[in-house]
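Postdoc handover notes: sequence design on the structure in folder B. Input tokens:
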């Protein structure tokens, strides 16, 4: 069985377009029907913080590029460039203009969650860093994204890797929570010492 990866350009694997264009800042509408995902809503663990997403109403007759489950959001500004896999949606949603919106062209050829993981790995990151440009803030253009070289294994191997990456992410979240809880315990002990209260070390 041949498990060799096949090299593709990202532009051959996914449709890439800029996020929704707004005239100025996104207008906050508390009861708005549309969620707008922006860079600030992308968490360090590669997930979308839907609780912080601004809601608004969209003007114009043109049908927006709605986010769909399985789409990717690509962060292309700053010191690190990465993709976030859209797993679930809270209703109608678009992404802001500082994100790229990717839709996999053939889900039988590439898994979105695998592609999101792969973009964050060393070989692709090095390509992105080489392609980045800008005087004040480095960013990656759509043309550079489309030209990215992607090594694609079989769909079965992609699934195995995506599952491993998902387990690693859960383990990382669990360890982070344990560390946070331990730090809170130590902070409580320090406060008790400072106030002369008895310590509970059981």
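Designed sequence:
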């Amino acid at each position: 069985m041949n498990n060799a990866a096949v090299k593709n350009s990202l532009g051959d694997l996914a449709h890439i377009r800029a996020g929704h264009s707004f005239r100025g800042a996104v207008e906050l509408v508390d009861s708005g029907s549309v969620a707008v995902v922006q860079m600030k809503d992308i968490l360090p663990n590669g997930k979308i913080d839907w609780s912080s997403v601004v809601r608004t109403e969209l003007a114009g007759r043109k049908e927006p590029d709605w986010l769909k489950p399985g789409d990717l959001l690509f962060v292309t500004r700053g010191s690190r460039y990465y993709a976030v896999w859209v797993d679930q949606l809270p209703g109608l949603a678009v992404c802001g203009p500082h994100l790229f919106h990717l839709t996999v062209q053939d889900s039988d050829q590439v898994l979105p969650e695998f592609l999101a993981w792969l973009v964050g790995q060393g070989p692709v990151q090095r390509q992105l860093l080489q392609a980045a440009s800008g005087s004040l803030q480095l960013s990656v253009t759509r043309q550079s994204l489309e030209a990215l070289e992607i090594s694609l294994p079989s769909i079965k191997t992609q699934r195995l890797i995506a599952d491993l990456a998902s387990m690693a992410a859960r383990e990382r979240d669990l360890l982070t929570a344990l560390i946070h809880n331990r730090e809170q315990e130590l902070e409580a002990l320090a406060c008790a010492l400072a106030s002369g209260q008895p310590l509970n070390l059981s």
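Context for whoever picks this up: The mean pLDDT is 87. Don't rerun without checking with the PI first.
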